[in-house]
Amino acid sequence: MSKTLVVIIGPTGIGKTSTSIKVANYFDTEIISADSRQIFKELKIGTATPSEEELNAAKHHNIASHSIHDYYSAWEFEQDALKLCSELFTNHDVVVLTGGSMMYIDAVCKGIDELPTIDQELRENLKEQYDREGIETIQRQLKQLDPEFYDQVDLKNHKRVIHAVEICLMTGKAYSLLRTNTVKKRPFNIIKIGLELPREEIYERINKRVDIMLEQGLIEEVKEFYPNKNLNSLNTVGYKELFAAFDGEYDLDRGIELVKRNSRRYAKKQLTWFKRDKEIQWFSPFDTDKIINFIELKK
RNA sequence: GGUACCAUAGCUCAGUAGGUAGAGCAAUGGACUGAAAAUCCAUGUGUCCCUGGUUCGAUCCCAGGUGGUACCA
Question: Containing H/E element for A251?
Fold first, then answer.
């Protein structure tokens, strides 16, 4: 019997959680979450982590599994998810992978290149240099270390430029040499299900969901983590806008408006990314039966 | 019913001594290989309420209409 990973993706707020639970229950299996923020156990409301009830309706993995102080990345996720897959496939023919973190999804489905994890001190040094001197000197460094990547990279995107320099310095090799651009073969089939609705409806759902978060106590949750606002895990929609409001950059109403706007923009960005992937079969989140039929047919 | 003011982008509004228009907010398109809910790039979307008049030319001036707001009855 062949093994199948059912990947359920879509923009934030579209209903991935409830669809995955239905699919997982139908195939009597478990869910691996691919969400770069729901992994943090401290964060609940602002990340729209599935409720207790939802978590009990199907077994979830990789939710609330880490602390906001932990380092985590797409590489760790690839390792963790593949390990979980091989464990789960011993008892199940189908495993569900769901989430909105585009790069995490691709890390599992296509794999990412072998690169060293960046030494923290090196990262801090480069960050300091960037803050002090701006992007230009780091750009020049990259031009010398890896002229090929220098010509390809978006030079204004400091994160990419810095990362490339980091890799060059860590490995002593040009970053572009380590980029293989190959898709890794997985020991299971992959079926990709995309959830979509008209843009307007997605936005309405998002706005409403933020209002619900506020009722659930979002402001209090964000206040609680204000001392950690510089952690990467807290540099995220729903938190960063309210931190800025607490800092007096604008009033609370504007902060809430920005949470909604940035959530909408995030959804748009996710759609841009996912639309490029021609393997995805798109469905309405209300068509669970069609989705299950499609999986039955293809698996 | 009368008088005054207003009508321009999805919203709030600016503007044009008459030469088909621009800000803020919102929005749209895109990039993406270990921080990715991150980071970065690009884009003005318009029956200037309607119908006539004056004019080479009207979103702008004039008349009437429609809608809104305020005040007076």
Answer: none
pTM, two decimal places: 0.91
Nucleotide nearest to A269 (CA to C1'): B30
Determine the distance between A267 (CA) and B42 (C1') in angstroms.
19
For residue range A3-58, list pLDDT tens digits in order.
999 999 999 999 999 999 999 999 999 999 999 999 999 999 999 999 999 999 99
Residue nearest to nucleotide B36 (CA to C1'): A103
Which one, of A20, A34, A15, lies nearest residue A295 by Cα? A20
> A211 CA to B11 C1', in Å?
21
The secondary structure of A162-192 as a DSSP string is HHHHHHHHHHSS-HHHH----PPP-SSEEEE
Task: Quote the ipTM score.
Answer: 0.91
Nucleotides of B under 7 A from a protein CB: 25-41
The answer to whether A103 touches A9, Cβ cutoff 8 Å, is no
